[in-house]
Design a protein that fits this description.
Helix content: 55-70%
Strand content: 5-15%
Structural class: mainly alpha
Number of strands: 7
Order of helices and strands: HHHEHHHHHHHHHHHHHHEHEEEEE
Radius of gyration: 24 Å
Shape: globular
Length: about 500
């Protein structure tokens, strides 16, 4: 039985770890909100969770056209946080903090239990600090190069999949560490099922790497056949089950699988990776970012090889997944022939785990530790008003558009990257229909049930492709709203074509 004094010290250590994580998360969110407000609050993809949650809250009819990602955990979290009444930007900001704290929680799970010679809380804080450093080095959004850690601060760029992957890796480590199978496997299975249900990308980020690592451990006689079978069944069986549970959502998933597998474009994907790498190392912070990632990957390989000699299956597994999953994500990008950097996020959140399982042996004087803790506390407190100010900063251009649309009482249309933020800001989002430049309704991350008409005006900005208007359509009035322009056709109705996705 553990002595009360030991339990108290461990409780204090855990509380200190979470306190440090909160301070780091607040600092990171303040930086992101101040330097990348477009990505956090108005990006066409970033606002989908808020649109879904608001639509559910209003009790609107639901017929969403979604990508293969269903955003189920993300929507549930955002909806819960919206009950605090902070408004859209305030809720998105709070959601960012929650996302990052969840990342710390996943890291802490990976770090393992308290035991002789282990420093799981120290390792977890170091790993999370490394992740926050990567975020800070990536900002602002729009800077050339990779932005992988930064995406976790959003509600839609796979934050739930990032956290789910970390949790599964952590449970896998605990299983190899001797935790009771009856306790670990049901939770691991549930997390894999939910993760696969909401985003099949977890198969590449987590399921396949773990299966491969289990095979290596089994061949190397680092785990028993029984444990290997249990681990494989827990992840592979759960992944299959989660995928089958996607069947009821088939009518909402408008993108065919073939849209995401284009091996004929592999050359273009490789060229994009090379271009993004070059752009990253063309700036000083990008050089630090890239060097840090390479150092973490190298450390994962070294620590993993040393653990192999010690026959430490748990550390081997974490280090192997930390290397294998990023490589698998890069292979996916090439095979898919895509320029979607977001698929590469394992490079940002998995190699840091080496710091959690094998924190560097540093002898820090007590006074220095107190100074660091104080600096973190001050930084976290100072970050709050910065984040609040960023969330509360008005968008006069957006307000101009929404005010005009609401006063008009009519229905207009706009293209995806232009109209998403105004739709979110409107009390009735159906006043703006999402279309392409040929005036065909664009069914992508939008509620098809809210479509209405007739359309008598268009909203455009610098991201809009020039509209192809029907013959005889003449703009009756042009309203300038900063970066937005409203083309008002008065009583002329613009006919919409057949919907497309």
């Amino acid at each position: 039985m553990m002595r009360p004094g030991v339990m108290q010290r461990r409780g204090v250590a855990e509380a200190a770890g979470w306190g440090a994580a909160l301070a780091l998360a607040l600092i990171a969110v303040a930086v992101v909100a101040s330097t990348s407000p477009w990505l956090l609050y108005r990006d066409g993809d970033s606002v989908v969770v808020a649109l879904v949650a608001d639509s559910l809250r209003r009790g609107d009819p639901q017929d969403w056209a979604l990508s293969p990602v269903l955003f189920l955990p993300e929507t549930a979290v955002y909806a819960a946080l919206s009950m605090f009444g902070l408004g859209t930007t305030g809720t998105l900001t709070l959601n960012s903090v929650v996302n990052l704290l969840a990342v710390y929680g996943g890291i802490r799970l990976v770090a393992g239990r308290f035991r002789a010679g282990a420093r799981p809380v120290t390792g977890s804080v170091l790993a999370f600090a490394a992740f926050v450093v990567l975020i800070v080095l990536e900002v602002p959004d729009g800077m050339p190069g990779f932005h992988l850690a930064l995406l976790t601060a959003t509600t839609t760029y796979y934050s739930a999949t990032v956290v789910g992957t970390l949790v599964v890796v952590g449970l896998f480590r605990r299983l190899l560490d001797g935790a009771p199978v009856a306790c670990v496997v049901p939770v691991m299975t549930a997390v894999v099922v939910i993760s696969m249900l909401t985003n099949p990308l977890v198969a590449v980020w987590c399921v396949l790497p773990i299966i491969g690592v289990v095979g290596i451990l089994l061949l190397g006689r680092r785990i028993t056949p029984r444990l290997a079978f249990v681990a494989m069944l827990a992840v592979a069986g759960a992944a299959a089950g989660g995928y089958l549970l996607r069947a009821p959502f088939a009518g909402n998933i408008v993108a065919a699988g073939g849209n995401y597998l284009r091996p004929d474009q592999a050359g273009a994907a490789v060229a994009h990776l090379a271009e993004a790498t070059g752009a990253t190392v063309s700036r000083w912070n990008g050089v630090l970012w890239f060097a840090g990632l390479l150092a973490l990957v190298a450390a994962s390989i070294i620590v993993g090889l040393r653990a192999w000699r010690r026959r430490d299956a748990a550390v081997i597994a974490v280090c192997a997944v930390a290397v294998a999953a990023p490589v698998a994500s890069a292979v996916l990008v090439v095979v898919a022939g895509t320029d979607a950097d977001r698929y590469l996020q394992p490079w940002a959140f998995l190699p840091i785990l080496v710091l959690a399982v094998r924190p560097p042996a540093l002898s820090v004087p007590r006074a220095a530790g107190v100074v660091v803790a104080g600096a973190l506390a001050v930084g976290g407190i100072a970050a709050v008003p910065v984040a609040v100010a960023a969330a509360g900063r008005g968008d006069t251009d957006l307000s101009c558009v929404t005010r005009w649309v609401e006063r008009s009482g009519r229905t207009g249309a706009g293209q995806f990257w232009t109209v998403r933020a105004p739709k979110l800001a409107l009390a009735d989002p159906s006043q703006l229909i999402q279309v392409d430049n040929t005036l065909r309704p664009y069914d992508w991350l939008v509620n098809r049930a809210e479509r209405r008409g007739p359309v008598t005006f268009l909203v455009e900005d610098a991201a809009s492709v020039p509209f192809v208007l029907p013959g005889g359509a003449v703009v009756a009035d042009t309203v300038e709203c900063g970066r937005y322009t409203i083309l008002d056709f008065g009583s002329r109705v613009l006919p919409l074509g057949a919907p497309r996705n």
